[in-house]
Amino acid sequence: MKTQILIAALFFSGLAAAQQSKDTLKVKNIEAVNIKKQVFKKQSDRFIYDVASSPIAKGTNTFNLLKQTPMLSSVDGKSLKIMGKSDVVIYINNKKSNMDAEALIEMLKGTPSEDIQKIEVITTPGSEFQVESNEGVINIVMKKKKSDGYNGTLKMNNEQAYYNNPSAGASFNFRKSKWSVNSNFNTGSWTDRERYTLSNGDSTFRNESFGYNDDPNKNVGGSVNIDYEINKNHSLGFTYNMRYNKSFNSILDVTNWQNGALVNRTVNNENAQTRNHSFNLNYEIKTDSIGSKLTSNVSYLWFNRDKMSMNESFPLNSDKKNIYSALQQSVPQIINNYAANIDYLKKTAKGSTWLMGVSYNHTNTDNDTRQDDIENGVIINNENQTNHFIYKERILGAYITYERKLSEKLSGKIGTRYEMTRSSGEILGKTSFDRNYNNLLPYLNLNYAISSDHNLTYSFSSRIRRPRFWELNPSRTYFTPNNYTQNNPFVLASKFYNQELSYMYKSAFFANLSFNYVKDASNQIPLQGTVTGPEKDENGNTIIATKRFLRYIRTNYGDNKQFGLTLGMNKSWFKEIWTTNYSVNLGYNIYKGSVTEDPTSVPVAGQTEVVEPYIINFKNFNISGNINNTVRLSSNKDWFLGVNYYYGSKVKIESGTLGVRQSFDVSLKKIMGNWTFVAEVYDVFNQNYNSIQGIQPNGSYNNVVNFEYPRILNIGVTYNFGNQKLKKAREMKSANDAIKSRT
C-alpha cells in the first residue's frame, strides 16, 4: 500500500495521498496508470509530448520528431514554429541551446529520436527563460539512463531542389566514470536559388524588375561538450561551438523596366564569409537531496562576417539618362560578447519551488562599412554611405520566480524579470547616441486541473525585443541602384505583452486563446520617394534629374494587437497504426502606425529628397493549419508512411498582403536494425512561396513575388552505433545565450 501511495503522490505532485481513503487510493492508482500512457498532456505552464510512449518516435531524428509534435510545424524543413508565435527558442534539458540557428537544425537532424524522453512546448515562458518578444520555448528532455560506453550517429543526406545539395553529419557520445563527452560535426554544400518579380509605383509611374539569385554555400560546423562530475554534488563543464560558412560568387541578376520600357540590367556579385566561435564554462552545485542547485556560467562569443560585393548597372536603351553605373561595398561585422550568470533553484519539502538568478552581458560590435562609386573607371569613395559604426551594449538582468501547489487542483507560478540596458552607438566622425532604459517584466501562470479529463491554464508575460546587431549596422544591401534595404542604428526596442488561456481535454484535444499587444513595433518598411539633384549624363554633362527610389527601412512604426485561437488534436487510431496531429490557428490582427520620413537619410548638398508617407492601418482575419499523418505499414513497425499538409491563408503584414501558401509533403521511412532510410518530398506542388501585394491610401503600390523553388526531394541514410542507452553529458546553458540570437 505504501508503494501505491508513493506512486499516486508522485503523479499528483506531492498531494496528501496518505490521508485519502482506500477507495480513493484505488481510483488514483487507476488514474496514475492512465496518465503514464498519455502521449500528450498539459502540465503547469507547458504542453508535454511523451516521446517514449509515442508510436512514431522510433527510427527517425529529433527534427522530424519535432515536426510531428502538437502545436509545432516546419514548412521549409529548415526552421520550426509554434502555432501563433513569432519565433521559437530551443532548450535542451531546461538549458538554452549554445548554437546558431542553422547549426542547431543540423544537430537536431543528426540526433536519433530514441535519445529523447519528452518534448515540452512552452507557449508563454516564465521569467527564468531568456526569450524576447512573442517567442515560445521548445524544451527537449533527453533520456537519463546511465551507463558507461559510447555511441554515435552517422548521417548522409542528398537534397534535390533546383540544385543538388549534399550534406553529412556525425555525432559521438562517450561516458566513462565521472567523465562525459558529447560532440557533433556537420558539413554541407548547397546553392539556394530564388526568382524575383518586383513592381512598384503609382498612377503616373511604374517600375518592374525581374530576375534571380544564385547563392552557393559551403558550411562546416560542430560542437563539443565535456562534463566532469567532481563528486555527487559538484560538476564542472565546458562547451565549445563553431561554425564557418563561405558564400562566394553569389549572383543577383535583375532586368528593370520603367513605364513599360526596358531600362537596364543590374548584376550584383557578392562574396561573404561567416565565422562563429563560442566558449562556455559551467559549474553546478547540488545544495540538497530534493533537487535544489546553484549553477554559474561564464561565456565568450566571437562572431565575424565579411562581405564584399560589386553592383553594376548596364543601360539597355538609348536614353541619355541611363548610363553605366557601378559601386562596390565592403561590409565587415565583428561582435565580441562577454557574459556571466548565476542561477539558484530552491525546492522545499512542501513542494514549492523558488527560481532566482542574475546575469550580465557586455557586447561590442564593430561595423566598418566602405562604399565606393566607380565613375569612368575611377573609384570614388561615397562618404555618405561609408560608415564606421561602433556599438556597445551592457545588460544587467535579475529574475525571481515562485511556484507552488495552491490546492489539489490549483497550482500557480508568479515571477518578474528586471533588465537594465545601457547602450551607446557612434558613427565615427558623424553622429552618436546613448540609449539607456530599464524594464520590469512580470509573469503569472495559473493552472486548474478541473478533472482527469479537463485542464485550464491562464498565463501572462511581458517581454522586450531588442534590435538584432545586423539591423543596427547602417549599411545598404542593393537590389538595384534605386531599390535596396537600409539598416537603421536608431531603431528602438519593442515592448510585448502576452496573454494566453489554454484548455485541454482528455490529453488529446486542446485549445489555446491568446492576445498579444506590441508597443513601439518595428519591421522592414518599404518607403518610396524621389531624389532630385545634379548628375552626369553619358556625355559628361551636368543635368538636373529626378529619380525614384524604393528603400526597405527597418524602423519603428507604431503598435499592433494580435488575437489568436489554436485548436488541435493529437491521437492514435486502430491500435496505433494511424497517428494524427492536426491543428488550426485562427488569427485577427490590428496594426496601426505610420512612417513619414527616412530615419537614416543623410542630407546631400544640392539634392532634394521627398519621402511618401507610409501608412499602416488595417484589421485582418487569417487562418492557417497543419495536418500531419503517420501510418505504420507493417506489423514489424519498420515501414512508415508520412502524409502532411500545411495551409496559410492571405494575411496582412506591415509591407502588404501576403498571399496564400500551401505545402503538401510525403515521406517513406524504412528501419533496418541500426539503419534508417528516409525518402521525403517537400511541397510536391510548388505552392509554398511568398507573394506580397501592398497598396497605400495615396495609390502608390509595392508588389513582391519571391519564389524559392520549394519542391525538394531528400534522401537520407542514418546509422546508429554503440550503446544507445548511454546517458549524455549535461547540456549547459551559456551565459551569452540571449546575445546569440541577435547575431
UniProtKB/TrEMBL annotation:
How does the protein associate with the membrane? Multi-pass membrane protein
Q: InterPro entries, alphabetically? A: Beta-barrel_TonB_sf, OMP_b-brl_3, TonB-dep_rcpt-like
**Where's the Outer membrane protein beta-barrel domain?**
286-719
Q: Which Pfam families match?
A: OMP_b-brl_3
Q: Which GO terms describe its biological process?
A: siderophore transmembrane transport
Which UniProt key words apply to this protein? Cell outer membrane, Membrane, Receptor, Signal, Transmembrane, Transmembrane beta strand, Transport
Gene Ontology cellular component? cell outer membrane
SUPFAM superfamilies referenced in this protein's UniProt entry, alphabetically:
Porins
Q: Which GO terms describe its molecular function?
A: siderophore uptake transmembrane transporter activity
Compartment(s):
Cell outer membrane
Extract the signal peptide range: 1-18
Q: What is this protein called?
A: TonB-dependent receptor
State the organism of origin. Chryseobacterium elymi
